[in-house]
Amino acid sequence: MKKLIALALAGAMVLSLAACSTGGNSAKPKNTTINVVTTYAGNDGNAQNYQDAVAAWEKESGNKVNDASATSDESFKARVLTDFEAGSEPDVLFFFNGVDANPIVSSGKVVSIDTIRKEYPDYASNMKDGMMGASPVDGVNYSVPVNGYWEGMFVNKKVCEAAGVEIPGADTTWEQFLDICQKIKDAGYAPIAASLATVPHYWFEFTIYNHLSTTTHNVLPTGVDSVQGKGWIAGLGDIKTLYEKGFFPDNTLTGTDDETVQMFIDGKAAFLIDGSWKVGGIESATDDIDNFTVTYVPGMGDRKSTDIIGGLSSGYYITKKAWDDPDKRAAAVSFVSYMTSDEMVSKFAQVSATALKKGVTVDESALSSLAKDGLKMIAGATGMTGAVQDQVPTEARVPVFDGMPKLVTGEVDITEAVQQVLDLLKK
Questions:
Q1: Is 229:396 a contact under the CB 8 Å cutoff?
Q2: Model confidence, pTM
Q3: N or C: which end of the chain has fewer CB within 10 A?
Q4: pLDDT at 362
Q5: What does each C-alpha distance from 318 to 50, 119, 287 come to in angstroms?
Q6: Which of 47, 124, 110 is nearest to 338 (CA)?
Q7: Which regions in the chain score pLDDT beneath 50?
Q8: Would you state the pLDDT for residue 1?
Q9: Are strands 292-295 and 190-192 parallel, antiparallel or unpaired?
Q10: CA distance 294 to 292
Q11: Cα–Cα distance between 218 and 206 in angstroms, integer?
């Protein structure tokens, strides 16, 4: 597998707009305010980097950003799509580039990279076109990525030590993981920090992966009796088993993601599945970063524990609304060029993937122990696949995502819920 390389956190940077721009028409419009929506908010590890970058761009360009960024969850995705339907879309949007974006692409309300390059020839010229995340609608690139992702299992070492268990590793099986969780529970801790009420995504992804493989996981089911359909049903059944065993927090059906993540930080829970962006969030949330590490999610069947989930799934879009306004057009291009320059992408990427042509290098001396552990995990990965949920529109996820509490408590049959997803996919 191609190694994912990352750049150490950059030091203080003084950048001119021209230096940050990827070239082309680098006009600096003045006194223009653009509306921007991103997912750099809440406990996202790059939230502060984003705020700093916005402030720097405003100072250097003379323009302003009206920011409405919010934490990425199902309600955020729904709000973005609703805004587009209502004609109240932003000028610049940092959003997913899979099926979640199909409605805004199909509506013609975002501008393609090729269209932008007709006026700004060097727009996103620092990126590999083949890695920018072409739309499933027409195979065209609309978004410019900043950093990609990998997903893994973060570990609170002190909880594991207190429970007398070894931290799961590359060879830990799912059955061994269940034994580890039981010992952690018996020691008085929550084995798994997760809000099944608001963020069931990661466990949904990996438990399904455990019944498929790197070549079959990212294929949508054609029916409940298909290989993928059976994998979905079995994976959701494993989440139900984890719940029945009491391995999730007591508030897993009602608590928020922020609350359960805080439990993990505070040493009340041992494991947290999340993405590479969480490295920065954990670094900023603790004074004892050496207490945390990240490892592989234990596997079963054809999936090795070292087979991971990762890719480049989000990027900056410029909307047609902004493009059709001469002043906002220039400001939007300037903003996205700034946010996707080599220097800025390197700062945001840290230990995750990028589409930069020049790539990035790693100065491990500037990384925390957690970030280094992330690099080691990626270096040891034996396979990688994208998240299958990225191919499922928001509304089609409702039966299994919004409905997760009822699935794990047995109020709703898992097979019926998967069938509902498939029925929604056909519409």
A1: no
A2: 0.70
A3: C
A4: 65
A5: 17, 14, 39
A6: 124
A7: 1-27, 29
A8: 39
A9: unpaired
A10: 7
A11: 12
